[in-house]
UniProtKB/TrEMBL annotation:
Protein name: WD repeat-containing protein 37
Biased composition (Basic and acidic residues): 32-47
Span list, region Disordered: 1-50, 237-267
Compositionally biased spans, kind Acidic residues: 247-265
WD repeat residue numbers: 152-194, 195-226, 279-320, 321-362
Organism: Myodes glareolus
Length: 370
């Protein structure tokens, strides 16, 4: 009797288990529309930067994925129930079927077929729906080929700024954290002039619009104006020399033009140590400086939250531009108008208008978050 009651209870549990499986299947089928509609309502209520057409396409794709996997899950449950029924039928005949192997083989075949159909369907739908998005990122021009042309070696620390002279002779200027500014020959890569008048990091360098003057800003809370004199060799006509120079001569010329990387390149340059003008009104690091149109005034930007306008000839402070709430990060000027732009860590940049001597207006531009 205890044995019969135990077998009856086991059979009753198996029936209840199968009943719960069928109940879960009916519950899943009956709530299919409700569950597929819920994510759409939730996602549509959220803020998104995607276009509405793209969002609707994605929602449809997600809905198809959910329905396909749900059908696959239901089919797997039905296969498992058929295996249990077959085992119960054959149990009385003394035979048994390895449910794990059978279910594994049938489920693998069924899942492979369903997965292949789902994969092909998703690929076709995805390609069709995203072709417009992908095409917008494709370049319509040929790929640009970039290569290293010249290397300028001479600084001993990081380089903060690079500038090119506006007039002849055209030279390249670099500002470095090694407390120096160097002028370079663009063609040969050789150092032409070294400025060593600052006591701190040189943060920026700008050239005068018409004279051989350079303006540098430094971490020593000053900006310097200094004169440089460089004489570049006159370039020879290419048409006359290209046919006469042999391959060996070309190699010799290129070897002579290359700087000596092993030695200190800047030590061989003429050095300027005293500026023509030193601008000292800031109480913090001067992060940038630039010439106003005409070259008679300069503007500087500092970490003391101000930008100063100076007269070049007298070195006097003309205006102190206040209004930024945090440190200034940059300043630049218009090439033909008396306009100055300053940027700051307060997430704003300001346009200062000095075209009318009697009225100095400023416009504040907001939009950045950092």
């Amino acid at each position: 009797m205890p044995t019969e009651s135990g077998s009856c209870s086991t059979a009753r549990q198996a029936k209840q288990k199968r009943k719960s499986h069928s109940l879960s299947i009916r519950r899943t089928n009956s709530s299919e529309q409700e569950r597929t509609g819920l994510p759409r309502e939730m996602l549509e209520g959220q803020d998104s930067k995607l276009p509405s057409s793209v969002r609707s396409t994605l929602l449809e794709l997600f809905g198809q994925i959910e329905r396909e996997f749900e059908n696959l899950y239901i089919e797997n449950l039905e296969l498992r129930r058929e295996i249990d029924t077959l085992n119960e039928r054959l149990a009385g005949e003394g035979q048994a079927i390895d449910g794990a192997e059978l279910s594994k083989g049938q489920l693998k075949t069924k899942a492979s077929h369903s997965t292949s159909q789902l994969s092909q369907k998703l690929k076709t739908t995805y390609k069709a729906s995203t072709s417009k998005i992908v095409s917008s990122f494709k370049t319509t021009t040929s790929r640009a080929i970039c290569q290293l042309v010249k290397e300028y070696i001479g600084h001993r620390d990081g380089i903060w700024d690079v500038s090119v002279a506006r007039t002849q002779p055209v030279v390249l200027g670099t500002a470095s954290a090694d407390h120096t500014a160097l002028l370079w020959s663009i063609e040969t890569g050789r150092c032409l002039v070294k400025y060593a008048g600052h006591m701190g990091s040189v943060n920026s360098i700008k050239f005068h619009p018409s004279e051989q003057l350079a303006l540098t800003a430094s971490g020593d809370q000053t900006a310097h104006i200094w004169r440089y004199v460089v004489q570049l060799p006159t370039p020879q006509p290419v048409a006359d020399t290209s046919q006469q120079i042999s391959g060996e001569d070309e190699i010799e010329c290129s070897d002579k033009d290359e700087p000596d990387i092993d030695g200190d390149v800047s030590s061989d340059c003429p050095t300027v140590r005293v500026p023509l003008t030193s601008l000292k009104s800031h109480q913090g690091v001067v992060i940038a400086a630039d010439w106003l149109v005409g070259g008679k005034q300069v503007v500087t930007a500092s970490w003391d939250r101000t930008a100063n306008l100076y007269d070049v000839e007298t070195s006097e402070l003309v205006h102190s531009l206040t209004g930024h709430d945090q440190e200034l990060t940059h300043c630049c000027t218009h090439p033909t108008q008396r306009l100055v732009v300053t940027s700051s860590r307060d997430t704003t940049f300001r346009l200062w208008d000095f075209r009318d001597p009697s009225i100095h207006s400023v416009n504040v531009f907001q939009g950045h978050t950092e």
